[in-house]
Amino acid sequence: MAGNKKNIILTGDRPTGPLHIGHYVGSLKRRVALQNSGKFDDIYILIADAQALTDNADDPKKIRDNIINVTLDYLSCGIDPEKTTICIQSELPALYELTAYYMNLVTTARLERNPTVKSEIKMRGFNEGGVGLPVGFYTYPISQAADITAFKANCVPVGEDQMPMLEQCKEIVHKFNSTYGEVLVDPQILLNENTACRRLPGTDGKAKMSKSLGNCIYLHATEKEVHEKVFSMFTDPDHINVADPGKVEGNCVFTYLDAFSNDEHFREYLPEYACLDEMKEHYMRGGLGDVKCKKFLEKVLNEELAPIRERRAKWDADIPAVYEILKKGTEKARETTGRTLSEVKDAMMINYFADSALISEWEANIR
Ligand code: ATP
Ligand code: MG
After folding, report:
1. Which domains are present in the chain?
2. Which string of DSSP letters, residue by residue, matches 66-106?
């Protein structure tokens, strides 16, 4: 069954908080564009609640509440449930069976080498001060491989932090296919060509923007909230007077402009510069103040967020319809993932009751 020739996308998000502009440029905006390209046979978005529980086991209410937040964010950004299937991970039992079988194909040493998991363990304070590392969290790259392969996805549009997950998934696919036969599809990661979008930093400039760190501009942010976030944003601490030369590397305002602005924005809001490079040159030379840069960024962000806010107001008023979208999407995903599990079990010869030829095989082997 290998080499399924279909074009299938799988991506997902952990429902640990509402989505932010980092998710948007890292993955969500691309998903909408790919969805509307008409080039894909199937597109699935998985709300990874079970994965979110691996480091939030004591707070199931948070995960439950954020399922609706995340879904509203998808719909507000233009995910169309007629073209994209949105589904909930914990409702897809095939994923856990696949995870269990894939666990036999991965060593603990390999898990320990995963740089994203390493930094996430550190960030969460696991293995420090008596806080243990949950086994579920440690092994989540394996369950993520189950997610991707269960949908036979060949295309996975994600942020840079997911690269090690995709590498690990590919290894599992190769190991599985070479051991049991060609069943699984080798997935390709799709990263944004714009490097600023691959790992958008938080407004504090310290780490990647992340729901778990509270350094975010959320997609549902009002104009007032965007203003507050932009004006408290980390810039260049040595750029004290307007006349001082400033640094653009590590300066959040410029990183966000790298991710969001285009020449059209300059024509519209800041015509004294033709493009971002000209603006950066002025900042580095000295003579361009942070306030002016921030005002421009605020306008750029609000332009991007305005249609998202508009669509959101419509969906906010129809939660029963959103509930139905999730229910229907999850039912479809249950069928898809169930089919892959059957193929996997056939290949692994653990399909006893789907294979009546086994009776004669056992008869012939009786000793
Ligand atoms: P958590 O802190 O719970 O892990 P998160 O903010 O890291 O949340 P995820 O749900 O883990 O978000 O990631 C969802 C998707 O968004 C992934 O494809 C990931 O690569 C992408 N992504 C997350 N944060 C960023 C970011 N700051 N810049 C670009 N892409 C991002
Ligand atoms: Mg994450």
Report:
1. 8-200+319-366 (3.40.50.620), 223-314 (1.10.240.10)
2. HHHHHHHHHHHHT--TTTSEEEEGGG-THHHHHHHHHGGG-
